[in-house]
Amino acid sequence: MTDFFAGMDAIKYEGPDSDNDFAFRHYDPDEIVMGKALKDHLRFAAAYWHSFAWEGGDPFGGPTFQRPWYPQDDMGRAKLKADVAFEMFQILGVPYFCWHDADVRPEGANFAESRKRLEEIVDYFGEKMEATGVNLLWGTANLFSNRRFMSGAATNPDPDVFAYSAATVKACLDATHKLGGQNYVLWGGREGYETLLNTDMGRERQQAGRFLQMVVEYADKIGFKGGILIEPKPQEPTKHQYDYDVATVYGFLKDFGLENVVKVNVEQGHAILAGHSFEHELALARELGIFGSIDMNRNDYQSGWDTDQFPNNVPEMALAYYEVLRAGGFTTGGTNFDAKLRRQSLDPEDLVLAHVGGMDACAAGLKAAAKMLEDGKLEAAREARYAGWQSDTAQAMLAGDLEAAAARVEAEGIEPEPRSGRQERLENLVNRYV
């Protein structure tokens, strides 16, 4: 045991009337919702990078956090960081965690040393996981922080960077497989471009497509049974991203014959940066058959970038989980808190309480979503709006041609009158549940 969270007990459910900061008010992990325990609906995971690797810096100032495992430059401190991380997982009762390779081990002098360090910490993780019962929701590779990736990873104009990226992903996929990870995520942080003046877009898309095919082929070769996920990421850090949003990713997957193999990990903050709502991206992923998992956070709506704040907007989360439930819920995916403290929140208890608040808000949102779905009023209103399309005439029109559709207008004297979409009524309906 470390003393980082000294004196902090496991967080328990005390109900909505509790005034204990260190208690859940809405998240009772064993509460049955729609026939399933809440913990199995939500499948919470803590993100290793924001919680333990981020030092509190921003573009205008250096680190603000002082942690006993800083500087993160040797394996002894990497193991101390793991000790603290697993203590927090147990305090919160989260069943899963997620990592990038750069979060969990210091970079070596060369690739071989970095790989050996990853293998060493993976063995250490294995011991911690066995002792605590905490599992791995997904692993991934950091192919964006080091200057070697400044022009992309799979899309880089230098084939040696492509090879280095392939070696990195192979090592991370091997590690994820060894730890029994439920998914492997590819996050194209710099898979984009700043200007077309020096970019061959077609070539870069082909490289990215072939890279993903290689990942899928290797996962199959080693017997990895988890999901392979892409996380859509617009705008930031490069100006034009090839994985901009769910629709863009689906088109990319179709191009390379992977739409039935690879799914998406959708982040709330990224959805907003793409000009969408979270529920839009989730609904589209569901409709396209590529829904996999979510990163839960929020953006500051007065800022034009990805602030990665802990979620606290229950109405927004209810609409998001409504789409998750409509998709049948999570299978290999879950709710990963891709969120970080504000750089002024210095204390260990801030890290715990941020997760407590996020978990409570998620639970309240999911329970509201379940009530909406079970009551069926929202779905009934939606079905009523499209009821005309159930007629034999409407279905025959869809199966026919343009001339036949046009002929109906004059033959039947069709003069359509607009009908209300009743948006405000439906918004009022949703607010009854949240």
Automatic annotation (TrEMBL):
EC numbers listed for it are 5.3.1.5
The reaction(s) annotated as catalysed by this protein in its Swiss-Prot or TrEMBL entry are:
alpha-D-xylose = alpha-D-xylulofuranose
Provide the binding site for Mg(2+) 1: 231, 267, 295, 338
Q: Does the keyword Electron transport apply?
A: no
Show the active-site residues. Answer: 100, 103
InterPro entries referenced in this protein's UniProt entry, alphabetically: Xyl_isomerase-like_sf, Xylose_isom_bac, Xylose_isomerase
Q: Where in the cell is it found?
A: Cytoplasm
GO terms under cellular component: cytoplasm
**A GO MF label:** xylose isomerase activity
Q: Which cofactor does it need?
A: Mg(2+)
Q: Where does Mg(2+) 2 bind?
A: 267, 270, 306, 308
Q: Give the record's cofactor note, including how many are bound.
A: Binds 2 magnesium ions per subunit.
Top-rank taxon of the source lineage equals: Bacteria
Q: Which UniProt keywords apply?
A: Carbohydrate metabolism, Cytoplasm, Isomerase, Magnesium, Metal-binding, Xylose metabolism
HAMAP family per UniProt: Xylose_isom_A
Q: How does it assemble?
A: Homotetramer.
What protein family is recorded? Belongs to the xylose isomerase family.
Query: What protein does this entry describe?
Result: Xylose isomerase
The organism of origin for this protein: Roseisalinus antarcticus
Q: What is the lineage of its organism?
A: Bacteria, Pseudomonadati, Pseudomonadota, Alphaproteobacteria, Rhodobacterales
Q: Tell me the gene name.
A: xylA
